[in-house]
Amino acid sequence: MSKSSPATPSPAELAILKHLWEEGPQSAREVQNAVSEETGWSYSTTRTLISRMADKGLVSKQDVNGLAVFEAKVEKVSLMNRMIRDFAANILEIDGPLPATAFAKSRFLSEEEAAQLSKLLEEGDE
What we know:
The protein is mainly α. It has 2 domains: 11-72, Arc Repressor Mutant, subunit A; 76-123, no CATH class. It has 5 helices and 3 strands; from the N terminus they run H-E-H-H-E-E-H-H. The chain has helices at 11-23, 28-39, 43-56, 76-90, 111-123; strands at residues 26-27, 59-64, 67-72. A 3-stranded antiparallel beta sheet has the order 1-3-2.
């Protein structure tokens, strides 16, 4: 991981990032409404988590007509590449290119994103 890369997100932070990648910029309340059933978080928990994510560089915060709006600051495919590589290196002790066929049928990635991730993993570049 380069020094300019944001922190690796926790599972809770990843839930918010996944939502923001899918829906685009949203207020904390909109994020809360979307993820509360899955997570069980209160609004204050969601708001605190998003604020911490902004401090870590995972999301950006912008004022839109007096409302704080948050947007994913990390690019989805790049982050997935980094997380997969970290897992492969640190848990499985695999170095070098990784086979990416497992991601071809991902519901989380579009065909274009899966192809982009496959290329990154097979090239062995971060």
